[in-house]
Amino acid sequence: MGRRIGMSKEDMVAHTQDHFANWLRDAHGLEEQAVTMLAAQARRIENYPLLKARIEEHLAETKGHVQALQSLLDKLPNGRTSILKDVTGRLSATLQGLGGALTHDEVVKGAMAAYAFEHVEIATYRVLIAAADELGEVEAKAVFEDILADEVAMASWLEENLDDTTRLFLMRDERELQAKR
């Protein structure tokens, strides 16, 4: 750990632990938001069975992420989750879902939003892995690495299937079939 001017080693560790706890709370809020967003998408998708199945699979993974992160937070002295952040995240995800429901290309916009969201989560877990490593938090680092693998897998699946989802949407739309979801 690099020394900050005027800070003792103990102060620097405490400072890093504060960042770690904040980032962990943020990750928990992101995962809570993801649960809301994925559940809404899974409920609304009707004509894209592969996408629906993958979202439902990732929803189950994400619920596990929430529990794993909460378990880590419970072990920290300053690890309480922010109810306001969790509620705000869920509200944001709900509003995003409602906004998508009003578009004629909901499934495509939802897949794009999910792909972008996965990359925010990937960045979050890379930061947490580095911080956990810096603090010697072996258990937390292992949890973050497991979650990161799930997020990378989901982002990869979305990337690999975005073209097909778009083409299926366009085909259904052109034939005036139920395309939006």
Quick rundown:
By secondary structure, the protein is mostly helical.
Write the topology of this structure:
Elements: H1 9-44, H2 49-74, H3 83-101, H4 106-135, H5 138-174
Helix pairs in contact: 1-2, 1-3, 1-4, 2-5, 4-5
Number of helices: 5
Distance between the termini: 50 Å
Strand composition percent? under 5%
Question: Which structural class do you get from the secondary structure elements?
Answer: mainly alpha
Helix content: over 70%
What order do the helices and strands follow?
Answer: HHHHH
- Given the C-alpha coordinates, what overall shape results? elongated
Tell me, rounded to a whole number, the average pLDDT: 86
Contiguous uncertain segments of 5+ residues? 97-101
Please give the number of β-strands: 0
> How is the biggest beta sheet arranged?
none
Rg from alpha-carbon coordinates: 19 Å
Walk me through what this model shows.
With 181 residues, the chain is an all-alpha fold. 82% of the residues lie in helices and 0% in strands. The protein has five helices and no strands. The longest helix has 37 residues, at 138-174. The protein starts with 8 loop residues before the first helix and ends in a 7-residue tail after the last helix.
